[in-house]
């Protein structure tokens, strides 16, 4: 009998599903794809077989809901001989954005776990309902298969209360579960571990500041493999300047806008989440475009870049102080991996902290994890490509591995 070694990773958004099928024997990718604009007339499925030399396939036309989307995904996989009914499939791993305080580890999903994820909807109204739909659909398709939830918040549950609590009335905070949860945890976990590997050390031996700079952006302070602080809070709005989110802001801005501009809570939500950050500052949220405009002498783009970098630098300094000793600062995600000028500007002037960037190393373009600090620097500066799908697949497989290899399915 075949030992199941494949894991399907599903990342379900409100109108999209991203997926990857991996073989955990060697972490190789067998296929990946995306269904977008679910529920619209113009839905699109893009499927890429990654082994056997097949070409990318695209399907356009209405896909009514997540169930239909997943059915189409299953058909595409089956066409490559990788169907969901394959005995080689060990489990399905689901990205779940909010796990609250209860889920500190990846968890095999059952009715009780589903109910708890549902209970967290009020603190993650945009994400958890979509994640739940994806899980329920996948469970209907393969009810016999272990399905695992991997939570974005889990890595941050090790934060001490001093970092996790807001300084507000404790009864109010507890009644409404208001505290700092943090997000992008899968990425922070993966990147902090890979950074230790790059330094030739165990995660327990190193202190790392991870800067996950994508469209959403967050920083974390990781001591000996455990998160001790992170920049996102109750929601992914807090912290760094992002593509369209303001990050840190005086909370009084919200009631000021309500009083003087007559804006509703929903208006302010849209303003701070969708119309702020780089987009609000200069109209663009793509760092490539912003750099191009700066090269052409555009002052708004230049100011947006300065504000972005200023905030980043403040967090590097803050987390340096939180950790006391820092072994590495690691840049990751779209901006962190690709935008050399952001890395250079964020580290510039921090020589007294033992931080420096080597211009030549910083300009190298590669997908490999690498150091960009000069030999003499006391603290390593690294670029470490994140891989949330691989991390979800690893955590999922580790959780069901015993079961599938030695248990009921063997
Ligand atoms: P998401 O949060 O959507 O997962 P990503 O991690 O993919 O985001 O990052 C997307 C962002 O990365 C883009 O908006 C852009 O600003 C930035 N980016 C991607 N490629 C480059 C590049 N070559 N140079 C500079 N910035 C880049």
From TrEMBL:
Cofactor binding, per record: Mg(2+). Can also accept Mn(2+).
GO molecular function per UniProt: acetate kinase activity; ATP binding; magnesium ion binding
GO BP field: acetate metabolic process; acetyl-CoA biosynthetic process
Location in the cell: Cytoplasm
Pathway it works in: Metabolic intermediate biosynthesis; acetyl-CoA biosynthesis; acetyl-CoA from acetate: step 1/2
Catalysed reactions, as listed in the record: acetate + ATP = acetyl phosphate + ADP
Catalytic site positions: 152 (proton donor/acceptor)
Oligomeric form and interacting partners: Homodimer.
HAMAP family assigned to the protein according to its UniProt record, in alphabetical order: Acetate_kinase
Name of the protein described by the UniProt record: Acetate kinase
């Amino acid at each position: 009998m075949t030992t199941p070694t494949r894991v399907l990773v599903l990342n379900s958004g409100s109108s999209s599903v991203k997926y990857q099928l991996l073989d955990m024997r060697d972490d190789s990718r067998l296929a990946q794809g995306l269904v977008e604009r679910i529920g619209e007339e113009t839905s699109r499925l893009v499927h890429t077989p990654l082994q056997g030399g097949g070409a990318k396939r695209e399907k356009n036309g209405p896909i009514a809901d997540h169930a239909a989307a997943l059915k189409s995904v299953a058909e595409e996989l089956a066409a490559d001989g990788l169907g969901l009914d394959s005995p080689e499939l060990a489990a399905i791993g689901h990205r779940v954005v909010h796990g609250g305080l209860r889920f500190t580890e990846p968890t095999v999903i059952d009715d009780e776990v589903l109910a708890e994820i549902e209970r967290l909807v009020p603190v993650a109204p945009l994400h958890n309902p979509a994640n739940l739909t994806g899980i329920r659909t996948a469970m209907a398709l393969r009810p016999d298969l272990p399905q695992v939830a991997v939570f974005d918040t889990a890595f941050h549950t090790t934060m001490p209360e001093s970092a996790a609590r807001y300084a507000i009335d404790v009864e109010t905070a507890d009644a409404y579960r208001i505290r700092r949860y943090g997000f992008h945890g899968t990425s922070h976990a993966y990147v902090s571990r890979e950074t230790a590997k790059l330094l030739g050390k165990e995660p327990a031996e190193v202190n790392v500041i991870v800067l996950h700079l994508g469209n959403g952006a967050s920083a974390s302070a990781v001591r000996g493999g455990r998160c001790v602080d992170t920049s996102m809070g109750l929601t992914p709005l807090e912290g760094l300047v992002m593509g369209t989110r303001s990050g840190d802001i005086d909370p009084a801005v919200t009631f000021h806008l309500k009083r003087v501009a007559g804006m509703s809570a929903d208006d302010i939500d849209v303003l701070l989440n969708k119309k702020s950050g780089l987009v609000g500052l200069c109209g663009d949220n793509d760092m490539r475009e912003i750099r191009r405009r700066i090269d052409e002498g555009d002052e708004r783009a230049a100011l947006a870049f300065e504000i972005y970098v200023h905030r980043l630098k403040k967090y590097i300094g803050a987390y340096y102080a939180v950790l006391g000793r820092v072994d590495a600062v690691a840049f990751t995600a779209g901006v962190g991996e690709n935008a050399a000028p952001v890395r250079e500007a964020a580290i510039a002037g921090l020589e007294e902290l033992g931080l420096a960037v080597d211009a030549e190393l910083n300009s190298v373009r590669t997908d490999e994890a690498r150091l960009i600090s000069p030999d003499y620097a006391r603290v390593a500066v690294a670029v470490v490509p994140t891989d949330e799908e691989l991390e979800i697949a690893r955590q999922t497989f580790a959780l069901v591995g015993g079961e599938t290899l030695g248990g009921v399915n063997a």
